[in-house]
Recover the amino acids of this structure.
């Protein structure tokens, strides 16, 4: 589900993480016990990580404490090793910020970072705050960059909007995009709740594109729920490696957890994990659960960045397999 922000003043805490702990209920997964990145203010999440130069680049949801209204925005951080991060200094008061108010959005979150054809794309959710996320009909915008550091909006309008009679009638969030031989496929979460003309819930939906800009939605969900998350699934990540498509998803139940589904075809059938692969460490920083995975298969490992929900903080954690 969407990140729930609480306006607060907290001391900046950037956690260095030299030790690892193997989760007993996650076969083969090594889960760092403390957050690896806390940002300018420890109200950050929804990481999206790609290889960049000799390290990694991350877009993430940061928090604008200076704005009116206060709310989420998209910021950038950079890392040599994927576990120690520095905010990209770009002269903004909200450090690393790349999204700003527009006609259709005064808040942004849940971004996806894509490098394609020598261009960097940041897809992100935006909305005009009309009394909370679910009352605001979140839409999707696109920002582009030649160097990965400086971004401009592709258009003054969203590139993808809710469908009034669809499974995303109350908003969409958390895009994840794969570049294929014949174009692009997007996996995202759709909210079908207050105005839903179907069975209410949170659905994993797909759209396809020839250029990564204009998208055509599939008519039916890819996945809806699993036995340990019956209401729905959120914050997906779609990967492809060695002939296998893998969906990493977040449960909607609290405490949130991350599971996987695999298939040799995007059309399924999907082999869904019977239990989560990543859960809360039980510490204060992720007591409410782990959410919004970003996944890279690199150097013989599967790397997962995510955010942990605490009672008074949201910070980014890391695990690998």
């Amino acid at each position: 589900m969407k990140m729930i922000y609480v306006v607060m003043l907290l001391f900046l805490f950037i956690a260095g993480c030299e030790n690892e702990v193997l989760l007993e209920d996650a076969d083969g997964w090594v889960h760092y016990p403390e957050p690896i990145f806390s940002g300018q203010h420890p109200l950050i999440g929804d990481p999206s990580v790609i290889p960049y130069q000799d390290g990694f680049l991350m877009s993430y949801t940061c928090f604008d404490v200076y704005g009116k209204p206060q709310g989420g925005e998209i910021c950038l951080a950079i890392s040599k090793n994927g576990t120690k991060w520095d905010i990209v200094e770009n002269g903004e008061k909200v450090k690393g910020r790349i999204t700003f108010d527009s006609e259709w959005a005064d808040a942004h979150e849940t971004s996806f970072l894509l490098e394609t054809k020598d261009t960097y794309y940041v897809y992100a959710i935006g909305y005009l705050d009309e009394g909370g996320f679910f009352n605001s009909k979140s839409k999707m915008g696109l920002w582009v960059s030649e160097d990965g550091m400086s971004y401009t909006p592709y258009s003054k309008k969203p590139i993808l909007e809710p469908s009034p009679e669809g499974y995303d009638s109350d908003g969409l969030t958390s895009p994840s995009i794969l570049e294929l031989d014949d174009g692009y496929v997007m996996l995202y979460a759709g909210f079908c709740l207050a105005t839903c003309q179907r069975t209410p819930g949170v659905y994993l939906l797909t759209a396809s594109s020839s250029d990564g800009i204009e998208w055509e939605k599939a008519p039916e969900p890819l996945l809806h729920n699993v036995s340990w998350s019956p209401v729905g699934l959120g914050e997906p990540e779609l990967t492809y490696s060695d002939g296998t498509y893998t969906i990493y998803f977040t449960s909607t139940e609290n405490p949130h957890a991350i599971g996987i589904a695999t298939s040799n075809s995007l059309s399924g059938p999907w082999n869904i994990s019977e239990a989560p692969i990543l859960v809360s460490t039980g510490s204060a920083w992720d007591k409410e659960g782990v959410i919004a995975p970003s996944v890279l298969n690199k150097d013989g490992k599967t790397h997962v960045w995510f955010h942990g929900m605490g009672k008074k903080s949201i910070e980014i954690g890391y695990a690998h397999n």
